[in-house]
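A student in our group prepared the protein record below, which I am reviewing. I have pasted the whole thing underneath without changing anything:
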Amino acid sequence: ARVREILSDCALPISVLTFSIVGSYFFKEIEMSKFNYNPSESLFVLAPIRSLSIGSVMSAMGLGFLLSMLFFIEQNIVASLTNAPENR
């Protein structure tokens, strides 16, 4: 049981290291194109949010509200399931 706890605690770093090694050594033959970077050009460009219409802003607000309600309800369902007496 002790090995299982240690393995479950370290599963993410172990898997990242394992697949980094696999990706580095077993896929060396794959040629990838180089990233071309021009320092005179800006890579960061702000989206033109001011050009959006009021309808698109309101619809995004509505969808965001529905998504937050989904998170809220899901969290309450999970909390009630885990705190149920039959699951203790």
